[in-house]
Amino acid sequence: MVFYLCNLTLHDNVFFASREMGTLYETEKYLHNWALSFAFFEATQIPKPYALQGESAQRPGYLEVDNEQNLLHLNEAGIYVFPALPIQWSYQITTFKSSQAAYHDKPKRMGGRGANRNYPMNYGRSKELAVGSKYRTYILAPKTVQIPRWIRLGKWAAKIQVDVKSIPSARIKQRTGEYICEHPLNPIDLSNSTQLLLYDRIIMPPVSLLSQAQLLGDYWEISNLTEETQSTKWSNLKGLPNRVCLPRGVAYGASHTVAAP
């Protein structure tokens, strides 16, 4: 198994409806690992049917065995993608025309018969991650797995450049105990042996993420290159943090049991 350092650069605006507030649809600054997993490995590791029919076309089945497009295929392949940490980001607000929905109340000015004037009935605003935003994530995968250099992400299928570097095994140590993970995590993907002590919650669908988590259990400690070990071979890992701790035993739905019908 190999740890890969992935630096992502947005070449298009990325939009997810993380929060819906009236006519404003806001994108969270973090990138969810389940979305990234499909972006990296759909059609190569995760089957991509030509058309979905029946119930599977109406609802997601990320961890359901009977759903053809589930993330459990990556568990079988020994692949795991962590959520992406924002390094440098900005937003752009875009106004778009939307279909009319009866359950949405349109904005109105206060008082009088003119309350319905100057407001179109079908519009919305999207708060999108802007071009040039940069992210960092890690992928755990076998050496034979090919990681694409370009992916599409979000509802607009935004183009994202991926800079992939393998982390030397000399920089990775296996440890056990209490530690702080500054990288975002998906709590459903943590092993049952990992205990969550403290964390900040990042509310976003389909599963809220964790930030600045304090955990107890087995983990990997990845350290940056020291002056003694720097060489031309490893000089491309300068973007690696001085120290990052990531939980061991992570897998899609590791702490969530799905009963097959």
Task: Provide structural commentary.
- With 261 residues, the protein is mainly β.
- It contains 2 helices and 14 strands.
- The chain has one domain.
- Strands 1, 4, 5, 8, 9 and 10 form a 6-stranded antiparallel beta sheet that branches. A 4-stranded mixed beta sheet has the order 2-3-7-6, with no helix packed on it. Strands 11, 12, 13 and 14 form a 4-stranded antiparallel beta sheet that branches.
- The model has no long low-confidence stretch (mean pLDDT 85).
Secondary-structure element order, as H and E?
EEEHHEEEEEEEEEEE
What share of the residues lie within helices?
under 10%
- Please give the number of β-strands: 14
Q: What are the low-pLDDT stretches, counting only 5+ consecutive residues below 50?
A: none
- Radius of gyration, taken over Cα atoms and rounded to an integer in Å: 21 Å
Which percent band covers the strand fraction?
Answer: 35-45%
C-alpha termini separation: 33 Å
* Mean pLDDT metric: 85
Structural class per helix/strand content? mainly beta
Tell me the overall shape: globular
Largest sheet, if any? 6 strands, antiparallel
Number of domains: 1
User: What is the number of helices?
Assistant: 2
Provide a short characterization of the protein structure.
The chain has helices spanning 33-41, 72-77; strands at residues 2-10, 19-21, 24-26, 80-81, 85-88, 91-97, 123-129, 134-141, 150-153, 158-166, 172-181, 195-202, 209-223, 243-247. It is mainly β.
